[in-house]
Amino acid sequence: MGEQGVDFIMNIFFIFLIFIAVILINFSINTSYVYLIGFIPLVLILFLGFYIRKKTILDGLNKTFKKEWGKSLDRKRNFNNIRSLFDYISGENSNEFHIDDQTWSDLTMNEIYTKIDRTITSIGEEMLYNLLRTPLFNKDKLEKRNKFINLLGKNEEFRNSIGTNLLKLGRVKKNYLSDLLWNDINVDTKYKSICMLLGVLPIALGGVAFLTKNVYFVLLIFVVLFMNFKFHGKIKKEIYQYVSCIGYLNSMVATSLEISKIKNIDGFEKYKTMLGEVGKKTEAISKKSTGLGRVEGMDQTGILDILYIVFLIEENQFFSCIGLIKKYQEDLKKLYICIGEIDALLSVASYREGLDNYVYPEFTAENKYFEANDMIHPLLKKPVGNSIVMKERGIILTGSNMSGKSTFLRTVGVNIVLAQTIYMTTSRFYRASFFKIMTSISPEDNIMGGKSYYFREAEALLRIIHEGGEDYPLLCIIDEIFRGTNPVERINASIEILNYLERHNAMPIVATHDLEITDILKDSYNLFYFTEDIDKEGMVFDYKLKNGVCRTRNAVKLLKYLNYPEEIVNNTNKRIENNM
């Protein structure tokens, strides 16, 4: 609320006071009416105070949302917490395809997530992560998702209403709410009656002590207070995790109802109906749990903390609402996902706002087809675009060290994920089949587990083989296949694996230094390469994809560029010449 609005209300208030004063001075009024009339300004002051405070907060939230729109948010993210919703949903839908941990790590998707994430709530933060790890294989669903993203991006009034309401919900340091909703609520309710009794005993005994003036009842009050203190400590250990998030659940229900009141717009119907119907159904939980989720220590005097312990307020509120939470658990999960999806898609709209260029993907019914023009990696500040067409056949990629092979592999993978999750790609044109995607780019030694690099590679490749492409083609990205073992076994095993994948509806994209593999598989794979030029400044990379096979090597050039002793460089070159 602006300063002019506040000044207007205050002027009206002072005029009202003057009016009351004139009445009291000029008219003879019964004393009881004087008190009544005097009480009216007090009520008005309280009402105006709450009204002005609410309007000021809402105006502040609206300004904050507008200020941050289209900008990246620099904040710490705990991915162990953020992934919790994905773990629950993927566990419930284990028959559906999800981006697995190895692929997510290989494609540096935590960094991609961070780039996209402008979510406002803890729920949206989790849902965005879940969306990016759950590719869709249905064009209609993706287009409907895109329609809502565009609605948020283009309709400023609607967007601001959504954003301001989500800001009221906000985020919490550790969100236990998904744990509450997706797990069995295992709380012993035998304490419910005891808590109710101990909560009212101090008041009852205080009344009896006041009426009877009996000191023994005062002593009994102290005994009950001690019992409540001990009981509070015992019960809190069992229900703390639930109590700490029920306050956030209440806010979620309230936010759902507020958003459902926003004027209906084409593309918003599904969310509006869901939030309104389920919000009303679960509204009773809020009434039963008022006061739960209070942050201890928020009252600097400690009075509230004492009252909550003395009367076991949190415990009684918890037991009064936990039954309803169990009853409406499935509805609350739907509400959680709905609110989270709205926030996640709002984040995507904000991310798109800051992009110079992106395109919507086109999907084809052709099997194993991928085409992209001027495709770039979204994390690079000065990216070099590359174009590629793959039809039925995979590709084998060769090239010098640092020439761009690994970046290209990740660029393809990331764009497929973005296309099938948030309906956008960082390219000039994108047309492809729906793909399942799996990678083996950077498996690491597992020292603690006693697994060698080769063992980790073999495990990573086996999971790709097991996934197969029976329902949808599998695009598998492999960097330096079997680099952890000797050349003879590496080359022969690699050839057999790549042949196997081709026969099982997979389209591999493989980077290798082994030219023997390209010579043997040149009839079943398309061949591309990256390379470098040498000038006075050293090696220069153009990062452009080229047709064919790279026959040059730059490992020794790198040694020379780094000023290794000439003896090492010259003798290495002689050894290479003698072995060729």
In total, how many beta strands?
12
Which regions have little confidence, pLDDT < 50, spanning 5+ residues? 1-6, 295-301, 445-450
Helix content: 55-70%
Average pLDDT figure = 83
Output the CATH topology of the largest domain.
MutS, DNA mismatch repair protein, Chain A, domain 3
Structural class: alpha/beta
Total helix count?
Answer: 23
Biggest sheet statistics? 6 strands, mixed
Specify Rg, calculated over alpha carbons. Answer: 33 Å
> How much strand?
5-15%
GO biological process, one term: mismatch repair
InterPro entries: DNA_mismatch_repair_MutS_C, DNA_mismatch_repair_MutS_sf, MutS, P-loop_NTPase
GO molecular function: ATP binding; ATP-dependent DNA damage sensor activity; mismatched DNA binding
Domain DNA mismatch repair proteins mutS family: 392-577
Explain what this protein looks like in three dimensions.
With 580 residues, this protein is α/β, with parallel strands linked by helices. The chain has three domains: 3-67; 81-354, MutS, DNA mismatch repair protein, Chain A, domain 3 (Orthogonal Bundle); 362-549, P-loop containing nucleotide triphosphate hydrolases (Rossmann fold). 60% of the residues lie in helices and 10% in strands. The protein is built from 23 helices and twelve strands. The chain has helices at 3-26, 31-68, 79-82, 84-92, 101-106, 109-116, 122-132, 139-154, 156-169, 177-182, 191-212, 215-260, 269-281, 283-288, 303-310, 313-327, 329-353, 405-421, 453-467, 487-503, 515-521, 555-561, 566-579, and strands at residues 362-363, 369-375, 386-391, 395-399, 429-432, 436-440, 474-479, 506-511, 526-530, 532-535, 538-541, 546-547. A six-stranded mixed beta sheet has the order 6-7-8-4-9-12, sandwiched between helices. Strands 1-5-2-3 form a four-stranded mixed beta sheet, covered by helices on one side. The longest helix is centred in the middle third of the chain and has 46 residues, at 215-260. It is elongated. The N and C termini lie far apart (80 Å).
